[in-house]
Specification:
This protein is mainly alpha-helical. Helix content is 66%, strand content 4%.
Length: 545
């Protein structure tokens, strides 16, 4: 078979439509879909609200993908979103996105998902997990705390707190995963996409398997009926006082009418679903390696987001057919008393697990609870294997794609010069290594969970600015070739921006511990950019003419 001719910049166009769609889907599907419904259910309390939030998440993801499709068809270059922002507003805004992506969004996600792989490996082999039984080195009695004073809060907002520092075998497993997949991707985009295709197909199969088992084996008509009979009962209306802690705290803070507080709490709960559906834009980073990128990248964005949105909605419908939305907290004590490793008591253990429902699922493992309802003995290990496959493929996709972003920055003089070079296989090896190094530091720092909390607000901010850039470029560069135009312009892109803006304002109030640190991370990029400019390494700050 003939080898593809390298482009003038050294990249090799090896990624087709199927590969690009698998990259979109594979980087979106990680461990979140199997877990985050639990925290969301604790906030909103009923089936209608829970599913409604996933529908809004899917709508936002699709609207964003449609808008990015136009930008990708206009600028099919390595770097994707970084290039879009630079062209619309100037190099400062492109740099702030790249800075935030390296520091938090991409490397933080790589670290967290790699640790998630190890966490579920620990379900099968406890001493290779992330719990105390897998601890290698521990420092206790620490008093590390960072507070952020905000005028409207009586006490400083705690944005970082640590009482102990622990290194586990699971962290070493996560490091090994990052190193292994970095080495694979250093060998070429063909090797990286092959791993991605295999694991994305496997994870989609695993997710579909859980859905089919849940619907046809584990579903309980009485549970589903009860969930939908009280589909729109919010916590404040249908549950005992004291359980709706977030509702009560936001109502006390804002004094807003009850329905508005419900919407605000619902918006805050979407942190989980938005994170589970994030990274759909990453395929734009690799446009220089895509065959016919003007057509392929937009199509893959739309196909991938539609596929994952449909799977996520089906998964949540499955949860609601098997598990009550609100479980019995008292069952947790009963669960602890049942030896889960005793085959004779496996059925009793699974039944107790099921009564915990979605909101009280053990360790938030909703997908595992569904599989346990179908098979008390095999449910846990099968779901652990499924999530390991899912997270492995997700880490590979993020490693493959993110390094292209740093390559584009380095080409503009906004990152280390070596990162802007390709190796003999046509991939940015130095960028891959740099990314791996920072991701590994985050794994050992133990801060990846906090960083992930900050990702959604920062990501929403740059999604908003990027889609706004679509309007800016329509006005400033009307003659620029647009092979694909977003349908429903300007209404659909404007709707996406309004939804992003409402969520950002909501998160600033409802989840301040997630949002303000994220803003600070973005703002720290301004002095770094100024240093690059002063040292003569950075480009001019004006948008391209």
């Amino acid at each position: 078979m003939s080898q593809p001719t390298p482009e003038a910049n050294g990249f090799q166009r090896r990624i087709g439509l199927f590969d690009a769609t698998m990259l979109v889907s594979g980087t979106m599907i990680g461990s979140g879909i199997f877990i985050v419904a639990s925290d969301m259910a604790r906030d909103v309390g009923s089936a209608g609200w829970l599913l409604g939030l996933w529908i809004v998440t899917g709508l936002m993801t699709l609207l964003g993908a449609l808008s990015y499709a136009e930008l990708a068809s206009m600028m099919p270059q390595a770097g994707g979103q970084y290039v879009f922002l630079k062209e619309a507003y100037g190099s400062l805004w492109g740099f702030l996105y790249g800075w935030s992506a390296f520091l938090v969004i991409q490397c933080g996600s790589i670290a967290a998902v790699a640790v998630a792989f190890a966490k579920f490996l620990g379900v099968l082999i406890p001493w290779l997990g992330t719990g105390s039984e897998a601890a290698i080195w521990t420092i206790k009695d620490l008093d590390w705390k960072i507070g952020l004073p905000l005028p409207w809060l009586r006490e400083p907002l705690i944005i970082f707190e640590r009482s102990e520092f622990m290194i586990t075998a699971g962290q070493l497993v996560a490091v090994a995963i990052v190193i292994l997949l970095t080495l694979v991707n250093c060998r070429g985009v063909k090797e990286g996409k092959t791993v991605q295709n295999l694991f994305t197909i496997a994870k989609i199969g695993a997710l579909l398997g859980m859905i089919l088992v849940g619907i046809f084996v584990a579903s309980k008509p009485e549970v589903a009926w009860n969930n939908w009979e009280h589909a729109w009962d919010f916590f404040s209306q249908s549950n005992p006082p004291g359980k709706a802690s977030r509702f009560l705290s936001i109502q006390a803070l804002t004094g807003a009418p009850e329905f508005l507080v419900m919407l605000m709490v619902g918006g805050g709960a979407m942190v989980g679903s938005l994170f589970s559906a994030d990274s759909w834009n990453n395929v734009t980073f690799s446009s220089a390696e895509v065959k016919d990128p003007v057509r392929t990248v937009p199509r893959s964005l739309i196909l991938g987001t539609v596929l994952v949105t449909a799977l996520y909605l089906l998964a949540n419908l499955t949860y609601l057919m098997v598990l009550p939305v609100q479980g019995d907290e008292g069952t947790a004590q009963q669960l602890q008393a049942i030896p889960k490793d005793d085959p004779a008591l496996a059925g009793k253990y699974a039944a107790a697990t099921q009564t915990l429902g979605i909101s009280q699922a053990k360790d938030d493992r909703v997908g595992t609870a569904v599989m346990q309802a179908a098979s008390p003995t095999l449910g846990v290990p099968l779901m652990a294997l499924a999530i390991m496959v899912s997270t492995f493929g997700c880490v590979n996709g993020m490693i493959l794609l993110s390094a292209r972003l740093y390559y584009a920055m380095a080409q503009d003089g906004l990152f280390f010069q070596s990162v802007g070079k390709l190796n003999a296989q046509g991939v940015p090896q130095a960028g891959l290594i740099c990314q791996a190094f920072w991701s590994i530091l985050l794994i050992f720092s133990g801060t990846y969970s906090e960083l992930l909390d900050y990702v959604i607000f920062v990501a929403l901010l740059f999604y908003f600015l990027t889609v706004l850039g679509l309007f800016v470029l329509r006005v400033r560069r009307p003659k620029m070739d647009r092979p694909y135009r977003v349908p429903g312009y300007p209404i659909l892109p404007a709707l996406y921006m309004v939804l992003c803006l409402l969520l950002m304002v909501d998160l600033l109030i409802v989840r301040p511990e997630f949002t303000w640190p994220g803003l600070i991370i973005v703002l720290t990029g301004i002095p770094v950019y100024a240093v690059w400019r002063l040292t003569g390494k950075g480009p001019e700050s004006h948008p391209s003419a």
